[in-house]
Design goal:
The protein is α/β, with parallel strands linked by helices. The protein folds into 2 domains: 135 residues, Rossmann fold, CATH 3.40.50.1000; 86 residues, Putative phosphatase, domain 2 (DNA polymerase, domain 1, Orthogonal Bundle), CATH 1.10.150. Helices cover 46% and strands 12% of the residues. It has a 6-stranded parallel beta sheet with strand order 3-2-1-4-5-6. Strand 2, helix 6 and strand 3 form a beta-alpha-beta unit. The longest helix is centred in the N-terminal third of the chain and has 20 residues. It holds the Pfam family HAD_2. InterPro entries: HAD-like_sf (IPR036412), HAD-SF_hydro_IA (IPR006439), HAD-SF_hydro_IA_YjjG/PynA (IPR011951), HAD_2 (IPR041492), HAD_sf (IPR023214), PGP-like_dom2 (IPR023198), Pyrimidine_5'-ntase_YjjG (IPR052550).
Length: 228
């Protein structure tokens, strides 16, 4: 990777800048207590773990077009109830919609996000490239106040394709007026963000703790400043 040629930075949003785990846990904890899930016979941590598992499995399927957005939203809470030993038909009918209304408005960011974006501002043109959905990602960017840093926001909905497909990377570069030669992808998912971008021809920075095919691997967002 030649940092001197980089002009455009494409960031994933969830788990990379927006702290999905913390925001989701706060929302789920509120809903768990609101509905008295399990009537005192289910531990909160078991509920949280079951939801994480269901949500992860459904998103993995979505990334490869095996389920729809609607199926993710309809199935993840019933799947959670099944895992914790409750009848899925007893899932509160509005819990899924309440989650969608509350969670994106949570303001927690991955540590270092604001400092990183502030430091990069003016030096690079920055963009969001996400497999998330238009409305929810827009709310996250507005609520946290980091939307101001990004020139374009491309989601799987606005593009019609999902990472790791080449089509979404191509679409994002076109929207940004960027090229493979002057762009870089930064994300937390070894497959959708990193492998997909590498196969498309983009240099990559991986944020996480796994071993990947990324050009650079970091476990602290502010370490990006050492490479750009």
């Amino acid at each position: 990777m030649n940092k001197d040629t980089v002009e455009h930075i494409f960031f994933d949003l969830d788990h990379t800048l927006w702290d999905f785990e913390k925001n989701s846990e706060e929302t789920l904890t509120h809903l768990f207590h609101k509905y008295g899930i399990g009537d005192g016979n289910v531990a909160l941590q078991d509920f949280l773990s079951a939801y994480r598992k269901a949500n992860f499995e459904l998103w993995e399927l979505y990334n490869f077009s095996k389920v729809t957005k609607e199926e993710i939203r309809d199935r993840r809470f019933p799947m959670t109830f099944t895992t914790i030993g409750l009848d899925p038909t007893t899932t509160p009918p509005t819990i899924g919609q309440e989650y969608l209304e509350i969670c994106p408005r949570k303001p927690n960011l991955i540590p270092g996000t604001r400092e990183l974006l502030s430091s990069l501002e003016g030096k690079y043109t920055m963009h969001i490239l996400s497999n998330g959905f238009d409305a929810t990602q827009a709310v996250k960017l507005e609520t946290t106040g980091i939307g101001q840093y990004f020139s374009t926001v491309v989601t799987s909905e606005s593009c019609g394709h999902k990472k790791p497909s080449a089509e979404i990377f191509d679409f994002a570069l076109q929207q940004a007026g960027a090229s493979k030669e002057n762009s870089i992808m930064i994300g937390d998912n070894p497959i959708t963000d990193i492998k997909g971008a590498k196969e498309y021809g983009l240099p990559t920075i991986y944020f996480g703790t796994e071993t990947t095919v990324a050009d650079i691997e970091i476990d602290n967002l502010l370490l990006i400043l050492e490479h750009l």
